[in-house]
Automatic annotation (TrEMBL):
One of its GO terms (molecular function) is hydrolase activity. It comes from the Bacteria. Residues 47-255 form the Serine aminopeptidase S33 domain. This is Alpha/beta hydrolase. Signal peptide: none annotated. It holds the Pfam family Hydrolase_4.
Amino acid sequence: MTTWVPDVLGDGYEQTTIDLGEDPDGEGQVEATLVRYQPAESDSTGRAVIYVHGFTDYFFQQHLAEHFAADGFAFYALDLRKCGRSLREGHTPHFVTDLAFYDEELNRALALVREATEGSVVLIAHSTGGLILPLWLDRLNRREGGTAGLGIDGVILNSPWFDLQGPSAVRSVGTAAIDVIGRVKSKTAVPGQGLDTYGLSLSKDHHGEWDYNLEWKPLSGFPITFGWIRAIRHGHAKLHRGLDIGIPSLILRSKVTHFSRKYSSKIDVADAVLDVRQIARWAGCLGDRTTIVPIEGARHDVFLSREEARTRAFDEVDEWLDWLYRSAHIERESGKDHSEIGTIS
């Protein structure tokens, strides 16, 4: 039986721990944390959402949970191993040497949600989570019945990290160096980090409107290690060769990128972390039907943008979900019944 306890977000929020055993990267016992939002009143559709965060991040976006709950979805969010609620003493924050290690908590979270709701699932991921999820879905889709057969209807990617920033020549040379150093000095920090402009844009105590735990999401970010960025680059390479995730995807991103070492108001209306042109370039590598929508005035986390851009993003999500389930209804009416849903073992 799954045990749920009150979560740090307060009324309506609960969490359960997913024990993952011994860390394959040698940092002791690891676990993930699944959070659920259960408002006192909701009109359930029998469907659920699972949200996965990015790097230097965890789930705190209550307005996101409340939006989906108002649309009739049971809302769940996963703090991955060594991230947010799952970070323990002795852990290097967010450190993994293989993104496939996350398959275990993703599989377990999906199974728990499917068991609890007995309905299908839409996945949402931000930034690094937007790379982790498609790689996992591609592996799932190779199983009999594919991702749709496991009760996954679609995926929404919020500014997914599809490539390393910078010119092509620098990325090529840099990746070769990362591959060598990452094998022998996996926990050594990559030099030249500590930029706080995006954090200053978000934080309620500075230029933003969001209140969150700065120990779990520091303004300047956690140090990026060579072993972790090596795993990211291996993930990028797999994506660039082409995936087949087996389900439709919606990709939301800002219209523009603005990199700066000093905060200015331009940071508030642009992606200050990723190059949005790279998101557009590699979106077609997911396979299946992909819808990509640039949002004017959006930040890197589109759902943490200022109100006008945030509202536009939610409107796009609702419109896409209407299309997704209208299409599913048409398929059922035409005889393509996917009611026999499989499970992950």
